[in-house]
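User: Structure please.
Assistant: Input sequence and predicted structure:
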Amino acid sequence: MRAVVVSEYGVLPEVREVAEPSVDAGSVVLKVEATGLCRSDWHGWMGHDSDIVLPHVPGHELAGTIAAVGAGVSGWAVGDRVTTPFICACGRCEQCLEGNQQVCPNQLQPGFNYWGSFAEYVAVPYAEVNLVRLPDDMTFATAAGLGCRFATSFRAVHQVGKVTAGERVAVFGCGGVGLSAVMIASALGAEVIAIDTNPDALALARTYGAAHTLQPPADLTEVGRPHVTIDALGSSDIVQQALQALRPRGRHVQIGLLPAGVNLDVGRLIGQELSWLGSHGMPAHAYPEMLNLVASGNLNPADLVTRTITLDETPAALAALTHTTPAGVTVITP
């Protein structure tokens, strides 16, 4: 099969022929119909993830059709249209049995722990726990974004941040995760403030429901202190701005990765009784609520897809993330 292969961190990957993944017991192999280009893939390419072993194939946001079914997998057949969370949980540990597959200690992540979906085929381990059947009318391009950015934002906004109608929510960073958060928080009835350096991203944020758009350095006191702040990019500076902006007893939700760590103003965290909340993906069993909202028209993840590229165009697009984040979601069709 053809795949994007990283042979050296930070060096432009190449598209070449590699062996197709094997179908192990408990797993399936998918024909990749669409896969998202995400900043997490850039972090992996730059060497920020210790799980990656070179040579490596990135890609963790995916949708496709089942091409092969491993021994012991029931309820799924070749040809089924599916997606999967980027966290493939084991289904057997204490966290999984409690329904918290997103923090499974035995999790495997395509594009990080093993070769991912920037390829024509990809394996999905622990298939019965992690596969999500796609609605017949949902395109693969739309579904690809559900595995990481949209599903991650849905859980972060709705289930972790517990955003409710009438609250003010500030979203820092309007890439795919941030724009998803803007759309979801707005659909929940929140007054959304979108903050980004990119005017095109802010224009999209307005179309997805943002009531206010600001470029940094943003003075949130102009529109009122938020109940909830969300770092959808991953920046120590953003974290400090978000915590300073929150009203007393406000909640900060951290989605963006912070490879270099962060220093918190713990005095303010304590004195204002602020909550710092981490949010990491969403388990497969939680998808139905999100899919129902999509089916009803309350959420429109298809609108987030602004660019489709080929496998051959992917190395350059990955490298370009070093300098800029394109507005909207980029989807690769292998």
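The chain has two domains: 2-148+282-333, 153-278.
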